[in-house]
Amino acid sequence: MQKAPDKPQETLVTGQGDLFTRLYRHVAPHATELVLVRHGEAAPNPPDAPAYDPPLSERGRWQAERLAQRLAGARIDALYASPLRRAQETAQAVARATGLPIETVPDLEEVRIDMARLRAAFRDRDREALVQDLARRLLAAPRWDTLPGFEPSHRFRLRVRRALAEIVERHPGERVVVVCHGGVINLYLSFVLDIPRDVFFLPEHTSLTVVRVAGERAAIQTVADSAHLWDGGTPDFTNP
Known about the structure:
Elements: E1 13-14, E2 17-18, H1 19-24, E3 32-38, H2 58-71, E4 78-81, H3 85-98, E5 102-104, H4 115-121, H5 127-140, H6 153-170, E6 175-180, H7 182-193, E7 208-214, E8 217-225
Parallel strand pairs: 3-6, 4-5, 4-6
Antiparallel strand pairs: 1-2, 3-7, 7-8
């Protein structure tokens, strides 16, 4: 049998491993591990619906089941979810696999949209022209309130940050799964990375974004990990 290579000598040793492990893995025993999960793919919203709250599509339900299979063997201490249907249905799959109850947090809801105002602003516009117009607005000023009918950015940022801070405070030293939305995940990472944007990337449906948090410190472990959707099988959950 080939001998394993010797472990490199640690020169920056502290009480719990080398300096970089402590800083960027954030292995402190009181750190909370937030596992932020984007919901599964949503079905189309009816054109005249008063709000944007569709259920999961057939593919979204498949994604939720693959997510549940991945999380079934992991140690998870609590399960939270947005009240919107696509998040609730995704969380229900996880709850069945883990036996955990779902705690619903209204402030984890995606950025709120006044559908009537949005429709009025773009009535009689060609769909492709509308999409291009919205894209130009977001690229020029990546804030949700750049778009008509969208919740003011400062309000969205405040409620998301407060909701996740309260969850962290309740679960020191524990791993918590939070089923939420792409906008929520973008905002939280923007706080951690000090990025002055409401939105800057699109996580895959049911992907895992893992952040370890204690006090004012937060260390990102994984961003938009969707390996459970691959055909090659299910990898380990997180390391360490």
